[in-house]
From TrEMBL:
Family annotation (CDD domains): ABC_NrtD_SsuB_transporters (cd03293)
Transport among keywords: yes
InterPro entries noted in UniProt: AAA+_ATPase, ABC_SmlMolc_Importer, ABC_transporter-like_ATP-bd, P-loop_NTPase
Domain ABC transporter: 2-208
Record-given protein name: ATP-binding cassette domain-containing protein
Keywords: ATP-binding, Nucleotide-binding, Transport
PANTHER family per UniProt: BICARBONATE TRANSPORT ATP-BINDING PROTEIN CMPC, SPERMIDINE/PUTRESCINE IMPORT ATP-BINDING PROTEIN POTA
Highest taxon above the source species: Bacteria
Species this chain originates from: Staphylococcus aureus
Coiled coil: none
GO molecular function: ATP binding; ATP hydrolysis activity
Amino acid sequence: MIKIQQLQHHFGSHKVIHNFNLDISKGEIVTFIGKSGCGKSTLLNVIGGFIHPSSGRVIIDNEIKQQPSPDCLMLFQHHNLLPWKTINDNIRIGFQQKISDEEINAQLKLVDLEDRGKHFPEQLSGGMKQRVALCRAHVHKPNVILMDEPLGALDAFTRYKLQDQLVQLKHKTQSTIILVTHDIDEAIYLSDRIVLLGEGCNIISQYE
């Protein structure tokens, strides 16, 4: 369960988030849509603990979120893979327990990348790299996954395939997913609830 209460954030005199309140149930996929510059990405970073809000609070599983943690995974438009590490080693980053190549390959198989674990990122296409990012979520099983337009730079065919894999991920992990996108069709297909945001992350309406 995520509770966002009286959240406000500003950069200097510019107020980016104004009195934002929202409850999100465990296992729910919620999508934020709104015009560029309305504060969606900033809101996502505050929820993840990457930005400390000017006021208000984010509560995840009864704990106030104050900093990033392994139970809250962020996926960006760029894959953020380390080029000098293999795919297996990239997936291991941040994982506290030892995990074998065989275990990782079983998860890579879920995103159609079996036997790619010993490759380096430069040997994979853009769509494959984003699938590795999804595989991280399969392996780490975070309570919350935050996604800032992670499929936006992909071609249509690859994007549709990853959307299906994201839905499968949600069913397997029961993670709560918060997604930012400009693609209305994507929002409708993936979401349990769509939240339309205006200036200052003002909630204009919600659709279920």
